[in-house]
Amino acid sequence: MARKISYQQAINEAMAQEMRRDETVFLIGQDIAGGAGAPGEQDAWGGVLGVTKGLYHQFPGRVLDAPLSEIGYVGAAVGAATRGMRPVCELMFVDFAGCCLDQILNQAAKFRYMFGGKAVTPFVLRAMYGAGLRAAAQHSQMLTSLWTHIPGLKVVCPSSPYDAKGLLIQAIRDNDPVIFLEHKMLYGMQGEVPEELYTVPFGEANFLREGDDVTLVTYGRMVHLAMDAAASLARQGIGCEVLDLRTTSPLDEDSILESVEKTGRLVVIDEANPRCSMATDISALVAQKAFAALKAPIEMVTAPHTPVPFTDSLEDLYIPNAAKIEAAVLKIVDKRKVA
Amino acid sequence: MTTHLSAEQLLHAYRVMRTIRVFEERLHIEFATGEIPGFVHLYAGEEASAAGVMAHLRDDDCISSNHRGHGHCIAKGVDVHGMMAEIYGKKTGVCQGKGGSMHIADLSKGMLGANGIVGAGAPLVAGAALAAKLKGTDAVAVAFFGDGASNEGAVFEAMNLAAIMNLPCIFVAENNGYAEATASNWSVSCDHIADRAAGFGMPGVTVDGFDFFAVHEAAGAAVARARAGEGPSLIEVKLTRYYGHFEGDAQTYRDMDELKEMREVRDCLKQFRDHTVAAGLLDISQLDDIDGEVERQIEDSVIKAKSDPKPPAADLLADVYVSYP
Description:
A: alpha/beta; Rossmann fold; 2 domains; seven-stranded mixed sheet; 14 strands; B: alpha/beta
């Protein structure tokens, strides 16, 4: 039965239900309980923003606080995954990957290929990502294209509570290493989520809105801004088709191409920096494989090629918004149609 | 000398060490022909370390290794022809020709992989030990790394994690005196790598890596401690490598007279033969028989590896993922 819960609760519920179902699932990360070795409350935090709250007491011995030591505990999670366990490892902010990239890039991602197809590494790295919390340059990055670039990794960016639960359950059951990215601005978002276990498959984009004039391709938090822009454009007589990628690796190329074949126009919206991004990757894909269908140049709405600034006025300028998406669409649709 | 090892155990240890030596000396010759792709890092001279530690391990115990991994693989029971074929880049290799010398792995034997990233195996082994602990088995996990890796943050983090989580881990620092071309007595800030154990609240000991029995005894204590749930240990094994960092290294940074003395006087195989025969534990003919068997085994593995097929072109795209829609 579906009821409304938050994106954050949906993630918590996915982990709880999978831990109940499969005793090889365990959690490890910094302060995912909080209070280890301290005189006060255990499970004091339940994660820095409370996403794992309550699991420590529900699953004794399976919710492991790690020291502030990303190479150590991320590497340990990868190692445990090669020995029949299904670790869900929390990297508090995706930016901290700078500390432990080797364990993901050179170890987890490479084992299966490098060892001739014999290794199975069911490792999930959960990490908070994205701008909007005034958390500045080292706590606000996307890094989606960095993970997507690496063969051997799967990359998941849910945009709703429903997808967050179903995609995380899929990630935990998946036999490949998965980078599961949680947008910090979506944690409070409410949505209908079934109580029972279900999975959302990887590599299947979600058609959130049908339209004939332009295709908007995006993922993560930007899905909601694209939907806002599409609603506004609909009032001006412009039909937007909105595709939520859900996963950037695997990438649902077929759905992107199918939609552009229909609309003939593409706007890619990506909260990440523009160079070598999902935006440029998808633009290249469409330019290569659907060039004949294009009626106008491809547009990209992205952050600028800068670090994420701290102060609100600058961060608001940095993050793409509905008005920028709308302007990009208006640039490439036939103005006579609007009139 | 006295030992509690049976003749069978002693002969097995000798066979392991001899296999590693002949395997590596043969590679030294074969590499010079240009037929082997990439680069190889030889373990010759260090055999007592792998054999002495692995004598205590079971198939469900894990190890991680490094770029100088052939010895660890052989001692952990990885198939010798499969290793040779892998080094030659053949489909019959243990990694189907997609890993090479630096990535030989056999998870079914608890060999989590040689590793091209210095120090990277230590956190993986902490994870394997954590898995054993969570499953409630008494399996242990051993990280082999060198003096170079002993300066890596990955090793420090793994040692701290293993200590605070009381994991069944053994950290084996094989100090062969050189991290590539940099001397460990310059790059390591303390007198002994084993001294660092104190900083992580675990026992640390330095042993003579030319002496199989010294390594065996220290490893036995550390493995027993780990199996009993008493936590991790660090063993520094002091030894030398007979060849360069990689094949082709002229080793102009070394004192070659010192190396000559080590080879001629302190060699681990020579010492093992002398001591076991002098003590009446083994008969020299038993050891000579093993030498002959090993020579033939390595000869066969080289002949077969050379004639084995390369992987087919389709393998380029295979096994990136278990499944990928």
